[in-house]
Amino acid sequence: MGTNCGSSAQTVCIEERQGSIVTKGKSKSHVSCGNDSLAGSVSQRACVYCGARVVLNPVTDAVHLVHGPIGCATFTWDIRGSLSSGSEMYRNSFSTDLRERDVIFGGEKKLAECIDEIVSKYRPPAIFVYSTCVVGVIGDDIIAVCKEASRVYGIDVIPVESTGFVSGNKIVGYRAAAEALLRLIRPKEGTKIKKNNTVNFLGEYNLGGEKWIVERYLREIGIEINVAFTGDSSVEALKKAPEARLNLVQCTGSMHWLASQMEKEFGIPCLDVNFFGSENIATSLRSIARFYGDDQVSKRAEELIERETSMLRPQLERYRDKLRGKRAAIYVGGAFKAMAIVRQLNELGVEVVVVGTQTGRSEEYQTLSGMLEDGTVIIDDANPAELERFLLEKKIDVMAGGVKERTLAYKLGIGFIDHNHDRKDALAGYEGALRFAREVYISACSPVWKHLRQVLPERERQ
Amino acid sequence: MIANETFRAKQVNENQCNMCMPLGGVIAFKGIEGAMVLVHGSQGCSTYMRLANVEHFNEPVDIASSALNEKQTIFGGEPNLHKAMDNVLRVYRPKVLGIVTTCLSETIGDDVKGMVQKYQNARPDCQVDFIPVSTPSYAGSHSEGFWAATKAVVQHYASLLEKHQGINIIVPHISPADIREIKRMLVLMGIEHTLIPDYSMTLDRPFGGRYQKIPSGGTPTRSIERMGGASATIQFGRTCPANISPGAFLEGEFGVPLYNLPLPIGLESTDLFLKTLRELTGRTVPESLTLERGWLLDAMADSHKYNAEGLPAVYGEPELVYAFTTLCAENGAFPAVVASGTQISRLKDLIAPLFPEDEQPELIGEADFASIEEACVRSGVNIAIGHSGGKVLTERQGIPLVRVGYPINDRVGGQRILSAGYAGTLAFLDRFTNTLLESKYGTYRQRKKQELFEKGGK
């Protein structure tokens, strides 16, 4: 099973990783996934805290307080490209800065003091308190501290149980964040929820203003976004989430569980959507219109799709001509993103020959596999050695991924498409699709590669 | 003559000025030939450190993790550490494996030294040198992590094989470009030396050739072995705590005389470095360096009046803070705020003598950017010098930032920022002066109109 790992003299693969790498068409088995990262394999994954922070960070007027030693906070200070139409509080990084004595005697008192200081300086509507590895080990009762602070100050002080060592998998952190959000939005017992006709938009983080693009489309067809989870959201707006009629779910990895809980608790049905690439946008707008069962909404959706695609098509055609025959690799965090990129690259005539994710689930890999040609390498929780090997073996022209993969691609003379949380420009919507096409073009076809590839050994030249 | 010293008054750290201890350890190990590094802790730590390093150095920076999970956290991390060592050796084939600890592994009480010993005992044929270092984030910042790892490497290899005329050069956490500049000066003077840790080629590689998982370059371990027999050590570590000072170790263990100098950044400090080299070796300073000194002097005259309008804040790692404060002071731009996320007990005694008695700066130890920002506003700072964290000073207070140090994650070329030697000092000084001019020329017409014309002119 798997590919013939170890065939390359250059790159040695780890035996235990072989089940996580399959070649479509050559192997009957499915890619092994969902495991803890193997010790020493140089996984690209982050931690539980990171997963929680990614999901919650865009809540603009909340204070994000990391209860732990300094590093956890420093490494995540303002590293996301989420934009805000209001408060900039979320761009600050607060840490309880635990020291040796706190680790020995416990950090609860310091946490309480930090909350006191934050409240007296800023009076935020909510504070998310993230637990980290050390806090988990020393056993601080952050729930009790948060509860007491909430009582004293009359604001939401919400524990996020994101102790890092529980798993190397960000998905566990997504779940911790979802639980924190649920705690924030759950109405007080006995409160009657007033329903309205709006939608919540789950799994949208407003990177580069993407929420605003989708909001414009939906408004045009006659639908208002109640609140996004969590892009450009405020604490007050989130608390009104139970009033919405429908939950749109975009990043399924981070939001699926929350959507199902909201369905159970508030009776809000959910609909999977995706606003990356023109095919996905059209499908999403149509299914939203279908849900509302309103002819006017459908009509306006069709008009929007027609107008935007007729503008986009000729522009994409230009890039298709330039990109024909190019070969791409994708390595991203979640399968949702991987699938969206596969579709967009296919629309551009680029052949995807390597796909991997940090946190894909088994059923997602099956869907992904269905979209790919035979011979495509599918890989879960890849490490740099494996990426290097397949980038070279598969003669990749351009790779899509996050920051850590970028420099490796460049060293191998390969173009790189930034598709990560710190991106500053929107890739969603029709204008995002055009920007994506341009990004693929300027990455794959830059004149610099001509010079760079000249000084690479024969094997590494394209 | 004592500077006004303050501390971050609050418990909460709001916008961090420093990074964590294992990160510094990782960077030091990247400067050792054939070395790979393994972080004993949870998976996230190594990934964050990779991210920070990739953004700063713009190079692939592979860091392994023992990826501790809940079970190992309860029963001890030995099996995972051993498995991680197996896998790293297999894929990377390092000659040296640095193993840095984290908050997690330290808190659960893993005896990493013992675990490594056990691993070696079970594999008597293993040729790899394992160097464990204790770097729990709650015990210090990345500055201390860097020194501690460097000392551990020196301690591991240095012996007294033979006395020789070479000089040991021990650098703090500076840019690869600065390391290359220091080496260039040594080569120009014709001085045999061992510089450690030398990540000038491993974390800033020229493009070309076959991709190497462990890039060639770094201080050769054979040279580190000979450090015990060197004629002297020059360590740019005026702020380095004695217990983690590699130079102090060499002096104590092998009697190699230690010259603890400021970084050769700024005229006086570069002079001191070259003077020390001259006295130690009897070599002369070549004409080319004298010319570079002359160009720097020329520039200092050209820009001194502009610089006198600068009221800087300098922040970052203690050694760099000391260097840039010296440079500013010798150019008449006396900093009003001097801050470090790290403890500054050693720094404060060094800072005061650089200033006239009535122009002492506000010193902030264990600073965060909330405290730095408040101090800047209080004293009317109009230019900042430090890493990218200071972008908040620009965004919120309109204070322009001259980027030096680590991390530089919002501009390209962090690895190439040159400030050492006469040439580097000149490059920095021009950037500094031009930042002042850009900010002055960008606003003075409007400001003068507001200040003078609208108040009464006709």
Walk me through what this model shows.
The complex is a heterodimer of chains A (462) and B (458). Chain A has helices spanning 48-56, 70-74, 100-105, 108-122, 133-138, 142-153, 170-185, 210-221, 235-239, 252-266, 278-292, 295-323, 335-347, 362-370, 384-393, 403-411, 429-444, 448-454; strands at residues 21-23, 63-67, 94-95, 126-131, 156-160, 199-204, 225-230, 246-249, 270-272, 327-332, 351-357, 377-380, 398-401, 415-418. Chain A has 18 helices and 14 strands. In chain A, the strands form 3 sheets. In chain A, strands 1-12-11-10-13-14 form a 6-stranded mixed β-sheet, with helices on both faces. Chain A has a 4-stranded parallel β-sheet with strand order 3-2-4-5, with helices on both faces. In chain A, strands 7-6-8-9 form a 4-stranded parallel β-sheet, sandwiched between helices. With 462 residues, chain A is α/β, with parallel strands linked by helices. With 458 residues, chain B is an alpha/beta fold. Chain B is built from 17 helices and 15 strands. Chain B has helices at residues 21-29, 43-57, 70-75, 78-92, 103-107, 112-122, 142-157, 176-188, 221-225, 246-254, 267-281, 287-308, 318-330, 345-351, 369-379, 391-397, 421-453; strands at 4-7, 13-14, 35-40, 64-65, 96-101, 129-133, 167-170, 193-196, 232-235, 258-260, 312-315, 337-339, 362-365, 383-386, 401-403. The longest helix of chain B is centred in the last third of the chain and has 33 residues, at 421-453. The model of chain B has no long low-confidence stretch (mean pLDDT 95). Chains A and B meet through helix 1, helix 2, strand 3, helix 3 and helix 4 of A and strand 2, helix 1, helix 2, strand 4 and helix 3 of B.
